[in-house]
Amino acid sequence: MPHAVVRHICQQTARLGLAPHSLRATCPSDLSRALSQHKGGPIHIHVAEQPKEVTDIVSWLGARPVEWLLDNAQVNAEWCLIHATHMTNDETAHLAKSGAVAGLCPITEANLGDRPFNGQLFLANGGAFGIGTDSNVNISLVEELRTLEYSQRLRDVARNVLVQDGGSVGQTLYAGAARGGAQALGRDCGTIAVGRLADLVAIDSTAPALCALERHQIPDGLVFAAKDSVVTDVWVAGRPDVRNGRHIARDQIVGSYRAAMADLLGSN
Predict the structure, then answer these.
(1) Distance of CA 76 to CAs 79, 191, 193, Å?
(2) Catalytic residue among 44, 86, 114, 134
(3) Which of 20, 21, 37, 181 is the least crowded, having the fewest Cβ atoms under 10 Å away?
């Protein structure tokens, strides 16, 4: 695809947003000023990842991080609260009902020993969630979704924790993350429908982890048994980004990454 066409597609589908890092990295007046100048679009903020963060914010602002945001900012569907692992039940329910997305990084949260997200109560109150990566210790969609569900099971000593209606856990996790991720990005996608952006993923159902499954079982197999290698193709707004399991710019990206690492290591 010509570069001019790619740039045009990106300009048509990209959304600019606001991302004050966290309540501990900004102050109420600066946050208020930034929000007052915000003309619409995603608002992402890191919040309540670890106990010390909660303690520090209580000492400084007189309230827990999520509690303070809900009381002092117009938190709505444009917002994405990253991590939000340390919340009371009341905070969890109110955040869910605000329409905001909980931006979860389960691998990072497990790696750092943060705490499992209160997924069952959040979803029971109609909450939306998205999946991302933070520390980049492992970049893997299926591992993120798998870790999210397993963290709930280990905490609650129960199975199928994040399913509200007794349906497919894999479908609940994958579809929920797709919808929540689209909302957090402000993109008109997240589900396959006429008029929506063609953000699509192709899965190799003949892969050993999936070949014995019925069609309706594929989401469960993807989340609990497969690796990311079963993804064969990815389209973003109809533009192919991955073909036959390989990113179209892989060689350039890997080369740039290795050069950057060599530069950083050489500067130490």
Answers:
(1) 6, 21, 24
(2) 134
(3) 37
- Beta-strand pair 231-236/239-243: antiparallel
Secondary structure tally for the chain: helices H, strands E: 11, 8
CATH superfamily of 15-192: Metal-dependent hydrolases (3.20.20.140)
Tell me if residue 241 is catalytic: no
Helix (H) or strand (E) holding 155: helix 141-156
Q: Report mean pLDDT in 10-residue bins for the chain, 268 residues.
A: 44 82 95 94 97 97 98 97 98 98 97 95 97 91 97 96 90 97 96 95 97 97 97 95 95 95 88
Annotated catalytic residue, options 83, 86, 94, 199: 83
134 is catalytic: yes
Between CA 43 and CA 139 the distance in angstroms is: 23
User: Smallest Cα–Cα separation from 178: which of 128, 107, 247?
Assistant: 128
In terms of CATH architecture, what is 198-268? Roll (2.30)
Domain residue spans of the chain: 15-192, 198-268
- Lateral strand order in the sheet of 101-104: 43-47, 79-83, 101-104, 128-131
